[in-house]
Design a protein that fits this description.
alpha+beta, 1 helix, four-stranded antiparallel beta sheet, five-stranded mixed beta sheet
Amino acid sequence: MSITRRRHARALAAGAMSAALLSTGTAGAVAATGTPSPKPSATRTGMPSTKPTRTPTAMGSITVAANRKAVKVGNTVVFTGRVRGIKAGSTLVLQHMHNGKWTTLKTTAVVNKNGTYTIKRTFTNKGTERVRVATKSGTFHSSPVTVQVS
């Protein structure tokens, strides 16, 4: 079977499945009655048995940017960023991906009063480094950035 025929067959199958799913959803909507949904049962105190969900009171975030995307071994990269929802004076750490796990490096920074930070790191091994910034507790972390070390 040629590649074109396989692609055509896949597209046809995907279209048929989409049509089937859409028609099932439409049939369910048409079959729905106008009766109201059941109300939550009441306990002896007259209060609903369902508990309200709690929303998180504080959310935090960290951004990061590297001043260079490629460096030679022994050169320094400066990582800067901003935090939200994290107190001034909090310690931030630099982490890198090592063997599929985020490992904390011995490079730290402190959040300034205006919510910014700067971390400097000198890389000593060649390769591609995926790094991110995290709170010391690990509760919050930035998206990773990549630095090519040659």
